[in-house]
Amino acid sequence: MDLRLPSKVLEHILSFVDSNEDRNSVSLVCKSWFETERRTRKRVFVRNCYAVTPEAVARRFPETRSLTLKGKPHFADYNLVPDGWGGYAWPWIEAMAAKCPSLDELRLKRMVVTDECLEKIAASFKDFKVLVLTSCEGFSTDGLAAIAVACSNLRELELRECIVEDLGGDWLSYFPETLTSLVSLDFSCLDSEVKLSDLERLVSRSPNLKSLKLNRAVSLDALGSLLRLAPQLVELGTGSFSDKLDQEAVSKLSQAFSEMKELKSLSGLWDVLPEYIPLLYSVCPGLTSLNLSYATVQMPDLVELLTRCSNLQKLWVMDLIEDKGLEVVASSCKELRELRVFPSGAEGLNDTNVAMTEQGLVSVSEGCPNLESVLYFCVQFTNAAMVTIARNRPNLTCFRLCVMEPFSPDHKTQQPLDEGFKAIVERCKDLQRLSVSGLLTNKAFEYIGTHGKKLRMLSIAFAGDSDLMLHHLLSGCESLNKLEIRDCPFGDTALLENAAKLETMRSLWMSSCCVSFGACKLLSQKMPKLNVEVIDEHPLETRPDSSPVERIYIYRTLAGPRLDMPEFVWTTQKNPEIGVSHLAIK
Amino acid sequence: MDEFVNLKATELRLGLPGRDNVCEDGERVSCNSNSNKRALQVDAENELKTETSLLESKVQIVGWPPVRSYRKNNIQTKKNESDHESQGIYVKVSMDGAPYLRKIDLSCYKGYSDLLKALETMFKFSVGGEYSERDGYKGSDFVPTYEDRDGDWMLIGDVPWDVLMGFCYLLQDVLCSCKRLRIMKGSEAKCLGSCV
């Protein structure tokens, strides 16, 4: 008797299975389940665009509606990856256009997207709805115009912190009068002024518009008229908040804000003048998310605002808030879940006028029981503070601490910050993301290896004494998925001893460390399922095996060596003349 | 090993400037033995001036602090627009008795009262006395002063704010009319009032 589930029935069952983790398990049961699952998967996430070929993905999941891709390694955000390294969206768009006509959502992060890509999207996917580009580059406003004009059912167009060649504000005018489906528009990273009348008309004919993030060029006056046209907004990113308005305009704007009963998220607020802060008071009680990280106002004004934000869950702010301001947050924002404090100074370490210390974070850890995610730039910290924070908040899932001066010890005891981080990893059992800083010895990493069992992503800079550090991490952190290290004095031994671990991780980045050329070659030879990329702007052919390389990026892949490597990326496959020497590595 | 030693001179130097022996094969770099790390921290008070200049001349580290370029550019741009020059006018501020100096951007302030308020907040003191042309900051324990191009310590407030800032914009940095600020305390300050 055939006990197999008819595929139609399985299909129906699978329509309730949303999580890709579950779907991955389903696909491993047997061939027919694999087939049914792959034909019904609607959302695909490829978190390293070089881990698999676009053709393989398009072939396996022909019905996919939504594709999310990530390209460059995280440290590209901090200019550690030279331009031209890779992360091109084109091959993916081409493959999806050929095999997956139902695609209507594309989310790309840290990828190179050209105008051709955007034109191809506009031309290939009939019902394209969602385009979200985060930290992408390579396109111009012409590409945006192509999307605007062709995608008649566009719902979301979001450009988050992209580097766009701005050829003017005309692109917005290309949205046809027939487009009424817009739900979300984010052009905050563009410079040029868009035509206000076009923007107003677009907003007027978009009854479903829930999220609008303007660029800096949109004046305060213009904001007023836009808010009056869209009082239903849930998310608002203002433009520049500093024009001089007359009394009438101010009260009209105030009125417009008070009409926004649904507003939950507020951002933008560039150059906000202190005298305009009161305009925001009416929306504060409803806010769950507030991004003040571009608002260069001082602590007293920030505090005025924050005391009114009793429902705030997410706060991004600059260190202008100072410790005192965070004390106010601790007592006013009891629902806080995520806190990010960014440095207000310009390039240098000693340019900031504000001294953010451990006090501020300790206050928030005491006052906010739901705090689970922290990003904190400061000038000093102590072990005792971290112990207190860990004790207060064992529910932390993300702890990223950046003491800005490298090698800073505990400023009270002058000891390394080992014990502090020990407390964090020991107490916060669900910690998934950790960034460490300050003076750290191998001990810190021994603790992290011992206790950080749920840790998935770890970022390290200017730390540790020797290879043991890396060894502790690679052998101890069972869930480790992404490890990125810069300026730490070791490499070879730990890397080679823990080579197998690298296949269980998405990627490893090491720059300005002591990984030798020879070790890279050996690793590459030992582990064919990894791409071992040496990213070095000096030629390697004549280098001895013992010389250190500038950067290595190692990631597991089913796709084999990639075909788009620039000159400065070396792999043993691309550069077979390098060869593998038989130099014994300790 | 010999090969390695011979190449030391041409080898890529990794690690922060001032740190050496980062990459000796097999050698464990102990954090205590590396005296260069200490140099980055504030030591004895009388070494403060050299410490500060060491910090000032320190090479910019690529990608540190880890702030996205997008964010850095946007804060920078703000300064561009409002201050007519890309870097602001940073001057050192010392206060008698304080363990370390601070730095402020003069272009952020609209006038003397603004500046004084900021200094009071930063150093947690209060000027107290009112400024008057005749008596300076009479009755105050603290007196704000600045060092001009000639190296003289001048009372803050005598020259109109615009004039002072005008000089700063024209001459910038080292040539700035106001090179640094100093908050004088106690008897030294009081003397200014009586020595007219």
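qc> Chain A touches chain B through 55 residues (CB under 8 Å).
qc> done
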